[in-house]
Amino acid sequence: MTTSYSLLNNETGEKVDLPLVKGTLGPAGADVGKVYDKMDLFTYDPGFTSTCSCKSAITYIDGDQGVLLYRGYPVDQLANHSSFIEVAYLILHGELPNKTELDEFDASIRRHTMINESLLSFYKGFNYDAHPMAMLTGIVGSLSAFYHDTTNNKDPKHREIFAHRMIAKIPTIAAAAYKKYFGQPFMYPKNSLDYCSNLLHMMFAVPAEDYEINPVAAKALDVLFILHADHEQNASTSTVRMAGSTGTNPYAAISSGIAALWGPAHGGANEAVLKMLEEIGDVKNVQPFMDKVKDKNSGVRLMGFGHRVYKNFDPRATIIREQCHKVLKELKINDPQLELAMKLEEIALNDDYFKSRKLYPNVDFYSGIIYKALGIPVNMFTPMFAIARTVGWVAHWNEMNADPAGLKIARPRQVYTGAPVREYQAISTR
Ligand code: ACO
User: Fold this and answer.
1) Which of 52, 188, 395, 399 gets the most CB atoms within 10 Å of its CB?
2) Which residue stretches of 248-380 are H helix?
3) Which residues, at least 6 apart from 317, have a Cβ–Cβ distance to it below 8 Å?
């Protein structure tokens, strides 16, 4: 392996060494930080396809091999043997907890599930048809107006309390958005329940009736949340880091991550997959739809396919596919949309357009079908993703703040393409 890189100006012969920043796995990064100073040159990489924004010890992805590790542990092992709360501890602390550590962490998360009562009245101000992601962005941003007693980002204890509060309150906030959308009374959390059962309770229970948690649904959610808990420097996590790099209030930084997650190219894809399946409607319409997808002028994409990093397969999609079949079987749901999804998958996996571009089903291709089977409405799919990804966001915010070098304000440069210098013209002469 090459151990040294330099950037050469072919005309002048001027050379700048690019020191290597090495990690434990994966390619090293060539440090281009001095290029501007030494060469009066920027590096240009829109979409950051080859650019590392930080060092991180949390999650590792090998897109070619379809590998996803949280703190070194393969995600399939965690999905099969662990729980979301244990994985949250692992992602935050770097090691799997022993029994006492897990019990203490679990108890702390349960203790922080309630939100300030004043926040509940904020929901009343939203329009009746507000998207739950809009409410989530607003309410999480509003947490910054409440819990500022513990937001000193230099204090490890404050960072821990913030992490616990955020992880504990996000299901409560999302469930309240659901209740607002459906015009039902808000259900307070029940801390005797585990994380996912409590979320189901807050979403589906009503004061007028008893509500029994379905353990199949709670388990399915738990696995989905493990698979969505972190994904290194994705768009929303990078947004949290970028906002956090200014030293802003941490709840405001998480709110900016939620806003970034909402887009259909990111967390909004699970909602877009279901809308696409509804639009296709029937297996007989699959081929004409695929023809449209392959026609560059149509602007139509096969939602739930393709990934910036995974160019072989998305390991989360493999687990979710199995989980999807299991849930539908156990809940005795015969969903024609699953048949439709399978047909799309079969055609795409054998089609040159997709094969040559290395486009495979991603995690969101199946997650929407599971959410639908659990009775979760389409506009709550992305909030479910946000609940799980909150663990990753707070872990990255913590990691960044624990390392003073990580606190450098994120401030990219640009290649300016506007007008050159010109003189102001008086309006009478324009
Ligand atoms: N359907 C059809 N064609 C596609 C798709 C798709 N889903 N995805 C990419 N392509 C094509 C592009 O048109 C392009 O073709 P070209 O080389 O002939 O121009 C080629 O594949 C490469 O695509 P890019 O857009 O350059 O790939 P990029 O890495 O920037 O995009 C992305 C990744 C945004 C995920 C893209 O694949 C996409 O839009 N997928 C659908 C949305 C989706 O499922 N998003 C969820 C991502 S996973 C997550 O956030 C949890």
Assistant:
1) 395
2) 250-261, 269-280, 286-294, 315-330, 336-349, 352-356, 363-373
3) 360, 361, 362, 363, 365, 366
For residue 18, the 8-state DSSP code is E
State the chain's maximal CA–CA distance in angstroms.
79
Q: How far is CA 255 from CA 179, 213, 218, 385, in A?
A: 20, 30, 26, 14
Q: Which residues of 89-104 are buried (b: 16+ CB within 10 A; e: fewer)?
A: bbbbbeeebeeeebee
Residues 341 and 133: their CA atoms lie apart, in Å, by 25
Taking 3-state DSSP, the helix, strand and coil percentages for the chain, each rounded to the nearest 5, stand at: 55, 5, 40
Active site residue 396: no
Phi, psi dihedral angles at 397 (to 5 degrees)? -60, -40
What are the beta bridge partners of residue 305? 361
Residue by residue, DSSP assigns 227-261 as HHS--TT-HHHHHHHHHHTTT--HHHHHHHHHHHH
> What is residue 184's DSSP assignment?
P
Q: What is the pLDDT of residues 201-230, one digit of tens each?
A: 999 999 999 999 999 999 999 999 999 999
Query: Choosing from 112, 164, 231, 307, which is the catalytic residue?
Result: 307
- Higher-pLDDT residue of 361 and 335 is 361
Residue in the structure block whose two tokens are 């449209």: 292
Cα separation, 252 vs 258, whole angstroms: 10
The amino acid occupying position 40 is D
Closest ligand 1 atom to Cα of 235: 50
Nearest to 203 by CA among 228, 225, 181: 181
The pTM for the full model equals 0.90
Within 10 Å of residue 67's Cβ, how many Cβ atoms?
A: 17
Whether 112 is a known active-site residue: answer no
Residue with tokens 């739950």: 132
364 in active site: yes
- AA letter at 193: L
- Find out whether 363 and 272 touch, Cβ atoms under 8 Å: no
Angle formed at CA 372 by CA 389 and CA 298, multiple of 5 degrees: 85
How open is the CA angle 382-383-385, to the nearest 5 degrees?
65
Ligand 1 pocket test, pick from 298, 308, 313, 349 with the greatest ligand atom count within 8 Å of Cβ, gives: 308
The structure tokens listed for 51 are 């650019």
